[in-house]
Protein 1
Amino acid sequence: MCGIVGYIGQRNAQEVLLRGLRRLEYRGYDSAGVAILNNKANPSGAAVLQIKKRAGKLKGLEALLSKRPLKGNLGISHVRWATHGIPNARNAHPHRDCQGRIALVHNGIIENYEQLKEALAREGHTFCSQTDTEVLAHLVGRFYRGRLEDALRAALKKVRGSYAIAVISRDEPGKLVGARMGSPLIAGSGENEGFLASDIPALLDYTKEVVLLDDREIIVLERGKLSVSNLDKDQPLKKKRVKINWDVSSAEKEGFPHFMLKEIYEQPKALRDTLGGRISEKKDAIILPELKPLEKALASMQRIVIISCGTARHAGLVGKYILEQYARVPVEVDISSEFRYRSPILNQKTLVLAITQSGETADTLAGIRLAKECGAKVLSICNVLGSSIPRESDAVIYTHAGPEIAVASTKAYTCQLAVLYLLTLYLAGLKNALPGAKIKQLIAGLEKIPQELEKVLQNKKVILECARRYYHSFGFLYLGRSLNFPTALEGALKIKEISYMHAEGYAAGEMKHGPIALINPHLPVVCIAPESRVHQKMLSNIEEIKARRGIVISVATAGDKLIAHHSNHVIYIPRVAGVLSPLLAAVPLQLLAYHIAAKRGCDIDQPKNLAKSVTVE
Ligand code: AGP
């Protein structure tokens, strides 16, 4: 949830840290801080540990540092998403030990911090924040005997919880130390310099090769040297460097007012990249070599259980419809945080499919661990190379959406859908569940989706008109049936997240069992009704809404004139096979949410209270 950047080298640390934090601000944005060591500030020759922190967005800290820049080539920094203690400067990271010798930033939760704090207080330590992290800084200080990694190792032996940590000591101006347990931490190195960060975008300006730390590992970065060891043993570990294929431009707004809008418009490319190379030359089969490790398991699989959260769950719900319809495998979809606390029935014949953009969502990670304990095989669909969930899965199919910076997920969602279509057709072929001609026809339709999406993106007149008319309405109801019931849920979630208006997604057939009581002229109803086998049913629902003086905004297939008679507004999407319509129908709903939020003056990329990846329960 929080973002960490650390630097050691010859460059101006403040610049590197702030640039990295800007790229990570989506991870947390209620306060920010830096600690930089200045070797030359003190006439005695001892380094000076300078710390600056600010409540609020990163720009507050940037303003402070532009007036009084901190000199030095070694530092750590943090953007916070508060868990313990309100978001103020005092609770912002970095935190220090009693002597002001150690500075530390942390992402995660120290579960036993209260016991540790009491024990340290009995020894005379005094604390100035309400955070769990400050305890860690004191603990490292308590064990410090001149070698930072030893002190961190000793401190972490006392700690229960999850963490990614970056720490420096005033007494060791040539060393940056990090550790990971349950929260992501990556490192990069160049000539005479090293970087630590909680996510790839922070390092894109400097390196395309990273080392991914695993749980219970400690990293020591010195100028020109990077070494990793186990938390329990001080013995060097060999780590592979992983190549990153994201460009720096993918982490920039490139002229768009918000990342969210840029990411919405990137969807045709993201989908091309995700589908690319996964369709056979003859266009009659899906190629997913990633599934090789699951060959045997897929042959004997009897059931799929999809686990995911938020938007990724909505993708999973679409997955259920298509996997059951075409691959004829029974599918259950569960919210990860529910799955992990019930007693799911799983065995070797169950495939657990985890869907996650970030690959770090704590509940989904716990869910796959539970699945493995129960003997199930785990496949994940993920966007972030080398993140925790793919690393702990038996196989992974990556979406190639590129970095998604806006907190509200858009391109990652449609790419997750694309992978689910690929997987469905792959399994349909494997299980002979569909005739070859039908597979070919669906592949042809799928391949055309990116170009059809380009047309959707050019057609924003009605969307802008609806945003203008209804941005101050009482709320929104979203209705869809079958495969587009999840589209309704996703449309409503987008509105809630970024415009702070209430919106509810419902299966249209359920309307008469309750939500119909809400229908009135102040609650626009968005009806997702492209051509499909439930189209007529949607038309009946629309009539029921109109009969009660409701406002209807329909999303319909180009050429559907009938729907226009019954709706106040119609957003047309190109004609595609009904089964593929969720890939197109989601996009006008993203745009509608975006333009409503823009009209309401909301902070679109960083909506209040949210964070991009939810690495705590
Ligand atoms: C989407 O707009 C949300 N911000 C959120 O629901 C997100 O999809 C959810 O937290 C799951 O994240 P993940 O895909 O990284 O696991």
Note: Residues 309-312, 356-358, 361, 364, 407-409, 497, 613-614 surround 2-deoxy-2-amino glucitol-6-phosphate (CB under 6 Å).
Protein 2
Amino acid sequence: MKEIQLTSTITFCQLEELSAEERALIEKAKQATENSYAPYSHFNVGAAVRLNDGTEFIGCNQENAAFPATVCGERTALFAAQAQCPTTPISQLAIAARNENGFTAEPVSPCGVCRQVILETEERFSQPVKIYLYGTNGVYIIDSIHQLMPLSFVDANMR
Ligand code: THU
């Protein structure tokens, strides 16, 4: 028997350390929180994705009185992109979230279901999705969803 260490590497930085393009995508995610429909949680999540050809899509959480019908901001953005540009790979995803006090100080990380959908996106296009998680204290940069999902489940596991 042996213990196996599963390690992750992510980067923490300040907005000023990012390129203008990266800051612009984060700004889009912040703006997307304005379109959020969150009358139950009052937690507004915005997401923005950029495709390989530079096209961008936004998404935001869409809540429902039947709570499980709610869709997170991340999936709203990813599915909007994939519905409209099904053959163009997605290279980047930025996420920001606001509560009644404003944008969260700590970056908000995607829920388990969204992580699985981001993983499927990487598999679908055979390309990592670089993820930017915005918080007023700073930004987490994650090079691939694999950093947040050790022992993930993909199609290959069924073969
Ligand atoms: N939510 C997201 O949109 N993304 C996440 O990563 C976490 C949670 C939404 C779902 C729901 O509308 C609200 O935040 C509270 O859970």
Note: The pocket of tetrahydrodeoxyuridine is lined by residues 38, 41, 43, 45, 61, 63, 70, 72-74, 108, 110-111, 114 (CB under 6 Å).
Protein 3
Amino acid sequence: MQKIINYLRENQSRFVEELSDYIRFPSVSAQAEHRGDLKACAEWLVQHCRKIGLQARLCPTAGNPIIIAKTPRQKSSKRPHYLVYGHYDVQPAEPFELWKSPPFEPRIAGRSLFARGACDNKGQNLAHLKAVEAYFKTGSELPCDLTFVIEGEEEVGSKNLATFLKQNRAELHCDAVVISDTGMPSPKHPALTYSLRGIAAFEVTLHGPSRDLHSGIFGGSVENPAMALCQLLAKLRDKNGRITVPGFYDDVAPLSAYEKKQLARLPGNDKAYRKFLGVPQLFGERGFTSTERRTARPTLEINGLTSGYQGEGSKTIIPAWARAKLTFRLVPNQSPAKIVKAVRQYLSRLCPPTVRLELTAGHGAEPYLVSPTSREAQAALRALKAAFGYEPVLLREGGSIPIVNDFKKQLRADTLLLGLALPDDNAHSPNEKFDLDCFAKGQLMSAHLWRELGGN
Ligand code: BES
Ligand code: MN
């Protein structure tokens, strides 16, 4: 192990250069204009994997390509096989004006590397690749077979990867999946995440008059779709922060007393959290702590709200339509299909006859819950401890990684979630960063992990 540790230490500055090259591709999956950048990024990644010594190929899909990269297999190998999943697509960088430096030109300040995709997820998946590089380049035997699956559509729902898993079940058959695409509370609290929230996304449009109308000539005689939408949305949540959709909480698994106690032990307090978020006061479902609310309770968020004139100055109109983008975060044992049905019924009932409701359900994902006491989980906890030098914590996370449920369904494999992002890494926000110590320790954790999982 010492050889590997030395190799990682001696090569950090080159690794940071390589991460910067990886990040310079503006691989924004939500925006069609970046299709070519995603392809170029995928090709760079395949080349990089080959340079490390992996057998890598680019797999075209109906959307962005998937990269498969394998450690060379020994004949009649009885070694365990693990998949390492990551994504090379990133969230849109907008609003650009809030970035202190251009989002796709990596900037290092102190021990942070600022850029879109730095922590979510390029830095985290590159950390695993660097660990494998260290095994190969030091001539150390890797005690497991590994297959990297790095996709380009995670931030838009992983639609094509799900099909790909189905079509390549035999090749991808594995003992477990390893993903670093979540967080940890602090560098002194390395974490194994054992639950993720699911999601159900919607677009609600209320259609009013057949065109924008003069608000003086017609105002008062016709419904304003923007006002109707505000009133409709306001009915979806009560003053205690409870979602009012009938049946919404029916399947919610309550937190056990043991879990509540564990969550309460995590670092941080509400005052610091409030300041960090820049809000005058925290808000959430009554009867739960902030940590419980954002990890183990379901929510409704309005992600976007559009109607009428948004330009400079005033324009006196009644808009022809109003639209909201909504997401519900779901917890075990809620099902997105059931929630879609319940929301559709409730909104249809609430919608006034003065406007026409159009409701489209977008992407959805089941929540995820896995045992933190399995043999693999214990190995992961030892690897975290060895790399970070602190006792790891067990976490539930509020975000979603839709594909983990497909790994379970298609490959019958559980996922180890070993996140390297810090709470102030600004994932999905302006000035996203990745901590270079987390990058280095993540590589070390990955190197230890294969030893621990391989059984020696
Ligand atoms: N890396 C995140 C997921 C995440 C972040 C999980 C922090 C736990 C803690 C991932 O890239 C992501 O943002 N996923 C989306 C999925 C959605 C588009 C279906 C999310 O959670 O919003
Ligand atoms: Mn991510």
Note: The first strand starts at residue 55 and ends at 59.
